[in-house]
Amino acid sequence: MIEKVLEALKKVKGVVEPIVLSVEDRNKILELERQAEKRTLMGIWPGVNIGVREALNRQVVVAALTTEEFQWPIKTVELVCNGEVIGEQVSFEEAERLKEKGNIVIGNFVIYKEKFIKADKAKVKLLILPLKLEELKVEGVKDLVVGSPSVPADLYIKSIIGLSKASKYRNCGSIIVGFNL
């Protein structure tokens, strides 16, 4: 089953060099994520990397490099306060439309002005969501989740896959895929 997932990952455009992570590597990545979450994300808010945390909690965890051909899903980040979305990543077209309505837009991240004004700023968190990769489906695999690691975890993943391998891909990133058997 693990080999099926590795083969399926290799078929996703822009995903290369998948490897199964050891327990030690999983623990190191979790620690790096915890450290990154203690710092503020986007320079302003504390965050939680839900996608990586969920992936690391699965029976099997795989890491892979991503090339510039990888199509990152649009909605990967939400700004929340008491369970309400007060900001989120959207398409660039949607961001322009929402900006015209008076919302705050940074690139393709929109902060809903009215909701943000009313929010208790001490309770605002930035959530890094699991990635939705529709093309990654493997029969017999349960609870598959994909996460986008923080910069320190990304660098660690590149080091265990091999910096020489990572250096041959332009704009190389990484993902973590967890699943149950």
CA distance, first residue to last residue: 7 Å
Total count of helical runs of at least 4 residues: 7
* Helical/strand content category: alpha+beta
In percent terms, what proportion of residues is strand? 25-35%
- C-alpha-based Rg, rounded: 17 Å
- Give the spatial strand order of the biggest sheet: 2-3-9-5-6-8-7
Q: How many E-type strands?
A: 11
Biggest β-sheet, characterized? 7 strands, mixed
What would a concise description of this structure say?
The chain has 181 residues and is of the alpha+beta class. It has helices spanning 2-11, 23-38, 50-56, 92-100, 113-118, 151-161, 163-167, and strands at 15-20, 40-41, 45-49, 60-66, 77-81, 84-89, 104-106, 109-111, 124-128, 142-147, 173-180.
Question: What secondary-structure arrangement, pairings included, does this model have?
Answer:
Elements: H1 2-11, E1 15-20, H2 23-38, E2 40-41, E3 45-49, H3 50-56, E4 60-66, E5 77-81, E6 84-89, H4 92-100, E7 104-106, E8 109-111, H5 113-118, E9 124-128, E10 142-147, H6 151-161, H7 163-167, E11 173-180
Parallel strand pairs: 3-9
Antiparallel strand pairs: 1-4, 2-3, 4-11, 5-6, 5-9, 6-8, 7-8, 10-11
